[in-house]
Structures are given as structure tokens and as C-alpha cells.
Amino acid sequence: MDRIIPDALMLLAPGCPHCPAVLEGLSALVKDGGLGTLEVVNIAVHPERAEQLGVRSVPWVRIGEFDLDGAQTPAELRRWAELAGSPQGMPAYFLYLLKNGRRAKVEEMARQDPQRLLSLVDLLADEESSMAVRLGIGAVLEELQGSGIASAMVPGLGELTRHADPLVRADACHYLSLVGGEEIAPYLRACVDDPDAAVREMVAEILAEMDEIQEDG
């Protein structure tokens, strides 16, 4: 399959120390075919564009679906251009957002397209994901709890309840409880006899809470 060539948008302002280098890097990508088009907006002339996009500082770049704040090296810009439209793109972008404390952006993108949340399942499956990233995933799901938006994650999280790493299994069970819904129960009941005591204890607590809610209902 041919690679998707993304377009880019850059917001800059006079006096910005990093804008010229970022603009040069993006221009080079256009010249060599890494980007299809590049739109450049001087927000001193068109402040309404920054307001529309909620941009408060420059340089600011959008490559495909990826919004990038601050200075970016030519190598970083090229990497995002290559990731845009690829299966690895959204997991990499969500990892970038969570590492940089931009959890709200993940939530916003999930509300726009719930299927994007499958990228969080990919991050959870990566045993190299840091505790901060895992906590970020949990915080996103807590924010979306009860909305039904994250239901697309259930099959993937269910698969991870059988992961070799007990930490991944425990996280998968916890995240299933945050997603909620009747469809999570079979995955959780399958973990009642998990080899790991911490997983067993967590699952027992989740199922007890679910039974209690059902009885009260």
C-alpha cells in the first residue's frame, strides 16, 4: 500500500526564536515529498487562526492529525510526517501526548473518534510503557467513564487479561472496570483464578462491586 503523504499547517510569529528552524525543516519536507502541502500563518497578522485552533504559543505545527507544540528538530518533523496515516502513528502520538502531560488532548481526540482509543490498548500491551503513561491511560478512561465512548477498547483489553505479564493483566482488568458495561464481565470472570494473587484480588473486588450495583439496580 502506498504511504499517505500528509499536509502540514504551521503557526508562527515575529520574534519567535524557534520558528525559523521549524519552518525550514517543514519546507525541506515539502521539497523532498515528505509533505504534500504546507500552509504558514503569521498569527500577528491573523490572530483569529490561533484563536480558532486554541493555540497559545508558537511554533505550532499540525502534520496530518498530529498537533505539535514548541521546537521540533528536522528529524522529529520527518518522523511525524512518516508516522501520519500509518498504523503506528496514533499510538506514537498518544504516547507523545501522555508523556508531555497533554491528557486532555487524548480525551478530545477520543471524543471525536472513539476508535482512536484502540491506540491506548497498543500502549498498554507494550511492556516498556512507563508507569506515568499507564497512569495517564487510566486518567483518560476515568474521565470518559460512563460515556460509552471507550467501549471499542473492550475486546482488546479482554485479550490483554491473558497477557504473560501480570502487571499488564492487572491494568487490563482495572481499565475494563472503568470502561464498564455488561460485555466486560466474561473477561473478568475468566481471571478469577489468575496465577497472580494481585490480579485475583483486583478481579474479586471489581466483580463484587458489579454485583452490588446490579442488586441495587
Descriptive report:
The mean pLDDT is 94. The chain folds into two domains: 8-83, Glutaredoxin, CATH 3.40.30; 90-216, Leucine-rich Repeat Variant. It has eleven helices and four strands; from the N terminus they run E-H-E-H-E-E-H-H-H-H-H-H-H-H-H. It is of the alpha+beta class. The protein has a four-stranded mixed sheet with strand order 2-1-3-4, sandwiched between helices.
Which helices and strands occur, and which strands form pairs?
Elements: E1 8-12, H1 19-31, E2 38-42, H2 47-53, E3 60-63, E4 66-69, H3 74-83, H4 89-99, H5 103-112, H6 118-125, H7 131-144, H8 154-160, H9 166-179, H10 185-189, H11 197-216
Helix pairs in contact: 1-3, 4-6, 5-7, 7-9, 8-9, 9-11
Strand content: 5-15%
Structural class: alpha+beta
Strand order of the largest sheet: 2-1-3-4
CATH fold-level name of the largest domain: Leucine-rich Repeat Variant
**Broad CATH class of the largest domain:** Mainly Alpha
The overall average pLDDT, rounded, is: 94
CATH superfamily grouping of the largest domain: Leucine-rich Repeat Variant
Largest sheet: 4 strands, mixed
**Oligomeric description of these chains:** single chain
Q: Poorly predicted ranges (pLDDT <50, ≥5 residues)? A: none
Q: Which architecture of the largest domain per CATH?
A: Alpha Horseshoe
* Share of helix, binned: 40-55%
Number of helices: 11
Distance between the termini: 51 Å
Q: Any idea how many domains?
A: 2
Q: What's the overall geometry?
A: elongated
Q: Work out the number of β strands.
A: 4
InterPro entries: ARM-like, ARM-type_fold, HEAT_type_2, Thioredoxin-like_fold, Thioredoxin-like_sf
Domain Thioredoxin-like fold: 11-80
Pfam family, one: Thioredoxin_3
Protein name: Thioredoxin-like fold domain-containing protein
